[in-house]
Amino acid sequence: MIKAIKKKFVVLVQKLIPTKALARLIYQISRAEQPILKDLLIKGFCSIYSINTDEAAQKDYRSFNDFFTRELKPGARPIDNVSKNICCPSDGTIAQIGFGENGNLIQAKGLSYTLNDLLVSPDTALKLSNSGFVSIYLAPHNYHRVHMPINGILEQSVHVPGKLFSVNRETTSSLDKLYVKNERLNLIFNSEYGLFALVLVGAMNVGSFSTAWSGEIIGRKDGVISKKEFKKEHQLIQFKKGDYLAHFNLGSTIVFIGPPKALNWSEELENGSVVKMGSSLGAIR
User: Considering the chain, what is the average pLDDT of its residues?
Assistant: First the structure.
């Protein structure tokens, strides 16, 4: 009873907070390059979250966001090289793992959402309606770059404006259709196994995304969905498994929807499993 009341209170508070204004403020602070401020933020963050800075490719940073989105040393995250294996796109904790059922995906126990609402593309949603999916929560201490799970060619990106609710466990298990409500970047790829999707879900304090091909993407004030078709523009943007793809400018969640071909998730993985970028999540049959 107390736990249920607490969850409702957490959601209510978030609905009352001006999350867009807060994100803009955090955006400015996180990019401040004044040495005293950015060093204080970085040292405080490392102390609170016990960050392993030995993995980092560099030691000096222009700002807190530069540190937060840091690259790692080569080899810090070995990439599974078995061709049919799906490698984990990021560090994090598995929120849900399983298979879609007629276009319905599980958000948390008792809560679901539709693939069509998430992708805002009926055709793609239909093709992936029964595919395997995994949602991975990136906590503040995690490595925040997103990498390719399998070889693929980018066909479409869709930036969907929305709310900026937290995506932590309490909110995910309490707020219906959270991933559909939040701002997100939908990326659709083609591969030798068929279409697959990666969805970068925004969250509280996450003001923007950055991608390998277009740099930073900031939400439009008019709230209009921004779609880009790369095939129609004769742009061939190819990625190999493990290639850097994008990053969150502060933390969030990733949803991977696999190709329509049958796949087997690794038996040892379950909701709550801690994962590392590059490790195997399963294999396409």
Answer: 88
Per residue in 224-248, pLDDT tens? 898 988 876 566 899 999 999 999 8
User: Which of 147, 159, 208, 210 is an active site residue?
Assistant: 147
Q: Which long-range contacts (CB under 8 A, 24 or more apart) does 66-71 make?
A: 67/38, 67/42, 68/30, 68/144, 68/249, 68/250, 69/144, 69/145, 69/210, 69/247, 69/248, 69/249, 70/143, 71/145, 71/244
pTM: predicted TM-score of the whole model, two decimal places = 0.91
**Closest CA relative to residue 92, chosen from 141, 56, 53:** 141
Catalytic residue among 129, 135, 210, 252: 252
141 catalytic? Reply is no
For residue 177, give the DSSP letter: T
Choose, from 30, 91, 157, 210, the residue flagged as catalytic: 91
Name the nearest CA neighbour of 72 among 131, 142, 168, 23.
142
Asked if 205 contacts 23 with a C-beta cutoff of 8 angstroms, the reply is: yes
- Helices and strands (H, E) in the chain, number of each type: 8, 18
Q: What is the rounded distance in angstroms from the CA atom of residue 200 to the CA atom of residue 256?
A: 9
Question: Would you call 147 a catalytic residue per the annotation?
Answer: yes
Q: Is 252 a catalytic residue?
A: yes
The pLDDT value given to residue 12: 62
Mean pLDDT of the region 7-28: 68
